[in-house]
Structure formats: structure tokens, C-alpha cells
Predict the 3D structure of the following.
Amino acid sequence: MRKFFSYIRVSTLRQGQTGTSLVEQQAAIERYAQQGNFRIVKQFEERETAAKSGRPVFNQMLKCIKQGQAEGVLMHKIDRSARNLRDWADLGDLIDHGIQVHFVNEGLDLFSRGGRLSADIQAVIASDFIRNLREETRKGFYGRIKQGLYPRPAPLGYLNMGKGKPKALDPIRAPLIRRAFEMYATGDWGLDALVDKLYEIGLRNRSGNKVVRNGLSSILHNVFYIGLIRLKEKGEIFNGIHQTLISKTLFDQVQDVLSGKNVKKVKHHMFQFRGKISCGNCQKKPSGETRKGHVYYRCHTKDCEQRSFREEEVENIVEGFLGKLAFNNEEKTSFEQYIKAESDNIIDSTETQKKTLKMQLEQLKERLSKLTDGYLDRVIDEVSYLEKKNSFILEQKSIEEKLAKLNGDGKEVLTEAIEFFRLVNNAYLSYKTGNMEEKRDMVKIVFSDLQMNGEKLLVKPNLPFSIVAERSSIPSGSPQLAAYPTWMKWAIEYFKNTHL
């Protein structure tokens, strides 16, 4: 009996595990072998698509045949062996060298001109079939994407809801994914430390294991969580209709940390003003060190002559500034009256801002439409098109988020202002009674920098704290001189510009 190999293939791993295709193909080959007096010395099974050449099992079989381990190969059908012309060319090369190839379903004599022509035609038809299938699949895939649906498995934090339906938030994992973004945005966490922390608080991947470093990095880069869909193949971004998990603002903060724009170094010691002080000479961040029971902040830059500051000295200066922020009774009364008087203006400003944002959104959509026309007319190359399109969609997401915040009547701005004035008024007491982390948070909120400058430590407050701190130098800054002090109006304008 002549020695032959058998080769069978299914398109997907699932077909090989649960389907009957492999069993049926092998049974047909074995019946053909018995009738033709062939002995199958080895079976080759492939569980990958034939749409692309380079199938490992198929290539291994060809190599073994060329080495003379068998006289030929038995296959079920032509379209099971070669659905691309390169693989068919490899088989044709074997046939040309006298290697016997039998297709049990077709029963063709491949050594005759007619049989070979018939097989060539069927191979071309099979190749065309797979190209058409790929094209139709691609059309369906992009059709779903353009509808805002993601046809691939849901990322961690979302659940698959079935074909034709948007992904839904996972009630268990979604809050933990949101927490991951919030924690990383602070710049206090490295990826490895955050991986361990998330595992500690309960985050698991779909296999029930820890989300590893690369997996967490992919999550933090994924625009799906802000309601968008990015295709890995070209990096193209589309609008999604699934519910957003985080805001674009938070997502942008995380990207800044990932790109190194807002990264904090690993801390080995806990000092109260660590990373909060800068050197006025070299702009470096002085490190804290303990000497004789006291903490000193000293610049370690070579040849820098800036003197060191003791922690108690820094704290006295911070407390002194915070103490000046508190309002007197007249200022409190004036502020309460101004908030009531400003309410109608805030509502008008909100409506004006809504109209402006809606106009910007329409203009952006028009620009996106013109960009697409330019790409279709081949005026714009694909790289430039994708870059500008992605930029437009991200900008559109930012505008939509701003509009969503303005769904109310704008009074949330006044609420923010009230909370701010309460924070300012209680800043000194909150700092004085807080623990180290609470004090560090207060310093971060109030100050943009604490700068060592020769013999002095200069405090640079954030807006609008600087407005409040300088209120005595602002014209009409006293409630005795004006019903509503200028500094108070400036502070409210800051909140309007920031929140509206």
C-alpha cells in the first residue's frame, strides 16, 4: 500500500472543538483511502482560516512531502486546501514534480490537462469567494462601527449585550475601572503599584486573575471609556453609542501622566512639603532630609547657593497666608447678597454659552464633512485625514461634555462659588487640624508653587485664591467702599469662565 498524508481544515477554533467538520472530512478521506488502496501514515489538522497563506500545519505537511515521507496527500475538497492562490501554487508545484494530490470530493485527475484545468478554475473560484466574503465582512464591520456599535468583545468594565446592541456597563468592574483612572490621574501611582492596589480592592480580568501591567496600560489608553471607538488597524476614531464611563477631562489628565507631562517620582520618604517647593535659582524640586530631628528642604543642584528651609519655617509661612484668606463678617454678608443678585446673570450666561457651544458643534460637524469629502476626492491623503478626523472627534466629545454640564440653569456655578468661599474661609482651620495628607491636599489646592528665593519663601497661590489674597490692593476692595467688591466680582467671573 502506498503511503499518504491526510490534510483536513476548519476555519475557526470553535468549529474544531464543537463542530463535526473535522470528523466528517476525515471519514470521507478514510473511505477514499480504502477504495484506492492508500495507507494514511500521518494526519494533519489545521484549525485556522485559509484566507491567508502561511498556515503552519499546511507548511509542515508540504515540507514532509518534499522530504519523501509520503508519496502524496489526500484532501477533502479544493476549497479546504487552497482558498488563496499562493497555497494553490504550492500544491501545483508538488503536482508538477510528480507528487500525488487527491481531492476525495472532486475525484479529479490532476495529471491530465482537463483535470488540472478544472482544479485551477475551482481554486480561482475559491479564492474569489474568500475575497468577496472578506469584503462583505468588512462592510458589515464598518457598518456597525458607523452606527456607534462595537462588534468586538467588550473591554473590561463593559458587558456584551448581544449582536446589534451597544455594550453595557459592568456593575461590578465599571466602578473599579473608573477608580483606576481617578487614581492614576493624580500622578501618585505607577502602573505596577496600581495593578496591585486594584487587585487588592477587587478588580479581576475575565479569567478571574489580576489585571497585569500591559492590560492596565491598554485600559488607560482606551478611548472606549469616554464613549468613542478606536480601531487598532489604522487608529481611526468613531463616535460610539455606548454609555461613557469617565469624562474626557479625566481621560486627558491620565494621558498627561502616561506621556510624562504630570508624573510624580516614586517616594521613599514621607515629607509634608515633598514636591511642593521649588528652587528659584535652578527651578528644581528640593528634596527633604532629616537632620538632628528636624526636616530640611535643600536644593541638591551642584553649585546652587540657595539656602535650605526648615519644615517648621515653611509651615509658618503657609499658615500665615491661609490665615489672611478668612473673611470678616461684612465680607460674608456682602458675598451672600452678591450671590443672590448674580443668580439671573448666571442663568443668562448659561443660555448664551449653550448657544455658543451648539454653534461650535455644528461648525465642527461641517468641517468634518468637508474633510471627508476631501479624502474621498483624494485631495487629502489618508494619514492627514485620519489625524484631522480623530482630532475633530475628540474636540466634539469635549464640546458635548460641556453642553451636558449646562443642562441645568447654571446655578451649579454659584454652588461651586459658595463651596469655594467656604473652603477659603475655613482654609486655615482645616489645615491646622488636618493630618499630613490633608495638609498636602490643601497646599496643592491653594498654591501653584512655594518658591525658595534667597532668604525668602515666596507663596504663589492658584486662581481664584490669588484674587482673594490680593483683595486689599484691588480698587473698591472693601465692602465699605462698594456694595459688591471688585475682587468678589472677579472671583465669580473666574467660576463663570471655568464652569460655563
